Amino acid sequence: MSRTITITNQKGGVGKTTTAHAIATGLNHRGLKTLLVDLDPQSNLTYTMGADGSTPTIYELFNEEIKNPSSVIHHMEHGDLIPGSLLLAGADMEYTKPGREYILNEILEPLKGDYEYIVIDTPPALGILTINALTASNSLIIPMGADIYSLQGLSQLRGLVDNVRKYCNKDLIVEGLLITRYNKRAIISRNLKEVMQETAKQLETKVFDTVIREGIAIKEAQAMQTTIYDNSPNANVTQDYSSLLDELLNKR
């Protein structure tokens, strides 16, 4: 049975796209067929995958200009991708009809038999695109920095998750809060850890045991449009994302 995971946080700079890419390509490396969906108008994930964002994208599927989602999938060296589009930047104003929360779910439904996992990257905002992602997903991962500022705004995300569960997707699970871009020389205070744990409880979830360390291997892989598993298999950050995959898969 296919499982759909959304990676989201309205705060930028927390490694959201990096995490979506690392999880999806890591699952593919383990022989689990995975589809990436770039729902962020910035389309950084599309670039990292080496895809051409000027060809048919998720935007054409949202507007029903193309009705066969399989025809929009790019079969790239490191996995399959539905590319993003800058045209989705106006989604909150463009999609106003009743049922707009279910557009992505309807797009992905016929693809679920072809993939074991679908991983969705979202924009750093809590608008209609993120609502669509959560409505279409089984679970959610929230990347966040190891600082107090990353906790600001999570109450808004919690409110959005509660509303999606109430009105669109009652079975949505928050897999956990993922600390990213961690610098071991920085000290996380006991108070901050306690606040993170309390925030996780409010979201009915946990803080992942795995911490993602900061590492140049990420930037190198992105610049070369490859994966950390191919480019730097022994790097700390690669080991960290592998450990995260172990946590996710061992839970099943």
From TrEMBL:
Residue span, AAA domain: 3-172
InterPro entries linked: AAA_dom (IPR025669), DNA_Partitioning_ATPase (IPR050678), P-loop_NTPase (IPR027417)
Record's protein name: Sporulation initiation inhibitor protein Soj
Assembly description: Dimerizes in the presence of ATP but not ADP; ATP-binding is required for double-stranded (ds)DNA-binding. Interacts with DnaA.
PANTHER family named among the record's database cross-references: COBYRINIC ACID AC-DIAMIDE SYNTHASE, P-LOOP CONTAINING NUCLEOSIDE TRIPHOSPHATE HYDROLASE
Pfam families to which the protein is assigned, alphabetical: AAA_31 (PF13614)
Family from the record: Belongs to the ParA family.
Domain of life: Bacteria
Catalysed transformations (reactions): ATP + H2O = ADP + phosphate + H(+)
